[in-house]
Design goal:
Layout lengths: L3 H11 L5 H15 L12 H12 L4 H9 L2 H4 L4 H8 L1 H10 L10 H18 L2 H15 L7 H21 L3 H15 L1 H17 L3 H15 L5 E6 L2 H11 L10 E7 L2 H14 L1 E2 L5 E2 L12 E7 L3 E9 H9 L1 H4 L13 H12 L3 H11 L4 E5 L5 E5 L4 H8 L1 H5 L1 E6 L2 E3 L9 E7 L16 H31 L8 H10 L5 H9 L5 H8 L21 E2 L9 E3 L11 E5 L5 E5 L12 E6 L7 E10 L4 H11 L3 E11 L2 E10 L2 H12 L4 E6 L1
Parallel strand pairs: 2-6, 7-11, 12-16, 13-15
Antiparallel strand pairs: 1-2, 3-5, 4-5, 5-6, 7-8, 9-10, 9-11, 14-15, 14-16, 17-19, 17-20, 18-19
Helix pairs in contact: 1-2, 2-4, 3-4, 3-9, 4-7, 6-7, 7-8, 7-9, 8-18, 8-19, 9-11, 10-11, 11-12, 12-14, 18-19, 18-22, 19-22, 22-24, 23-25
Family: Belongs to the relA/spoT family.
InterPro entries: ACT-like_dom_sf (IPR045865), ACT_dom (IPR002912), Beta-grasp_dom_sf (IPR012675), HD/PDEase_dom (IPR003607), HD_domain (IPR006674), NT_sf (IPR043519), RelA/Spo_fam (IPR004811), RelA/SpoT_AH_RIS (IPR045600)
Function: In eubacteria ppGpp (guanosine 3'-diphosphate 5'-diphosphate) is a mediator of the stringent response that coordinates a variety of cellular activities in response to changes in nutritional abundance.
Length: about 700
Amino acid sequence: MLRQYELVERVLEYDPDADEAMLNRAYVYTVQKHGTQTRASGDPYFSHPVEVAGLMTDLKLDQETIATALLHDTVEDTLATIDDIEANFGKDVARLVDGVTKLSKIEQMPENERAAENLRKFLLAMSEDIRVLLVKLGDRLHNMRTLHFIKKPEKRQRIARETMEIYAPLAERVGMYEYMREMQLLAFEHIEPEAFATITKRLQQIRDQDGGQVDAIALDMKHALAEAGLSVEVSGREKHPYSIWRKMAERHVSFEQVTDIMAFRVICDDVADCYRALGVLHTTWQFLPGKFKDYISTPKTNGYRSLHTSLIYGKSMRVEVQIRTREMHRTNEFGLAAHWAYKQDERPDGQVGWLRDLIEIVDASHDPEELLEHTRMAIYQDRIFAFTPKGALHQLPKGSTAVDFAFAVHTDLGAQTVGAKINGRHMPLRTQLGNGDVVEIIKGKNAEPQMSWLGFVVTGKARAAIRRAVRLKERSEIADLGQKLYDEIVTRVPARIGKKALRDALKRLEMEEPEDLFYAIGAANITDRAVMEALVPGCTEGMADEDDEWLRSGKSLSIRGLTPGVGYTLAECCHPVPGDRIVGLRQQDKAVEVHAIDCHKLATGIDSDWLDLSWGRRSRGAVGRLRVTLYDRPGTLAEMAGIFAQNAVNVKSLEQTQLDHPFTTYEVDLEVADLAHLTRILSALRASDAIAQAERA
């Protein structure tokens, strides 16, 4: 553990103007406050914040960050308060400590909710000052180094998995690759102990047998580059066990089949030398096509810059090579932290692009599962590059589509997307993008996100925005239906209901806005009796049982203007179409399910609230299902398809349900305008010699 004078001397080495007195006060304060507390290892608890502060000095961070590292656990684990911190160390340090501190212990929540809530607060805090993240990553790294002292294996597993899924990817996104690699390695040891032990043992065997092969290859590269007049540093290493294991899992190969276990780094004086070194290596050894990546001309979103290539050394050995300048190397290893060094005049404001996306996801996410899912997507590592027509670069996860690209450019653009051109050609929105694609998004004024997009988008930002838009639309449409029901309920109240009565009812029901009441009615979260009682207290005395409340005034409610699948769903059992007499089944927190009045399954919904519904004028468009029996001979299927084409109908699905020679029966789902359209199709089918029978399914 670092002693007080050692820690202060470390800071003064790179920042002679640092406030030595404040650093001393912070050290003494954390020692006093943590007192006799101990860690699982048996060490004094204050050794942990001191070691985290030491990690921050390795990054040459400013004095406020060092003080925050020393104090980051005092508010959570001692009697100290944020006000105490502010009084002793100033507003900046207090704000940072508050950001790093877990604001509440949520031990009663399920594991996923606890993780999501901590992540939510953490992301919001670090959006204000990225130093919160830097200290938190140092805190997590030191905790991982001492994780083996925790006795409960399930607790070790939980912490290791959280580190692997959240903190290591966050370290990668801010370019702190040293932290990322060590976190992954330490977490891997606890999550997959058998795989870790096996791969570590195999690597040691290779090390014992190769007779210094890594050093020999590095020396060969250095000689080849020196002969070309380049003065460089070359170092080699084996990839760490987690990196090898991930390649084995991704490629479904054994350890022996992982060919690029060795990686080499070439450090040059300037950018021009980087490209010269690349040329020398490619002319000296054969390079693998498709493995070259230029992150110097096109850096990653986290600022990472380097040339990557793979070579075949000797007869068959594959080796990876990274080429970069010294300045790039420091930035690549310590990322955003390198920009926060004490001497930097212009520091990042914390609101880097990907972080803004994360905050947007936090705002849009509906529940813990959603937040964790979307955040993991947003911080996932594998990326592709795509461009707008004006040349603006956007990085996206592999597998991203045109819709993901639209939301990456701007949330409003994503919401208004109706089409896309990829490299000048109109392509389906679900088309996956490749590296270097130029994407032009076509938008419409009245367009809105579609639920079906969730079937192919991959970015957390897109999924969160789509789900939020669909939820808002669903709430609006259910509230519209609820308002129609409210108007019908009002007719049964023995008084004239005006704005004042509605305001009083909202107070009695502890609701803010009329829309809250309409939504509760539409979603069946409140009974008709409760609404009537809130409007006119005492008016429901002597009323029949609530089971009979579906017997209304006889007026049907129009579903015109509501969207199928949002405001209501069309029952799969009877496939009603505009023109059918319909009835709705309303159940709590579910969209109204619309059935044809003669549906044989209606009896199962007798416990639901029944609504007499009507399509409303100009209601058009639904999927009708037919059961068609054809004569089993050549050409009959083509004749049926011809009838569909003549009647301008789109076939959604066609399924053979029975083969009983000489007949074949199909179930066909058709997009029809209304009942009259469907009836014309049925008449045409029945008139055909190819068709034995046709009826609605």
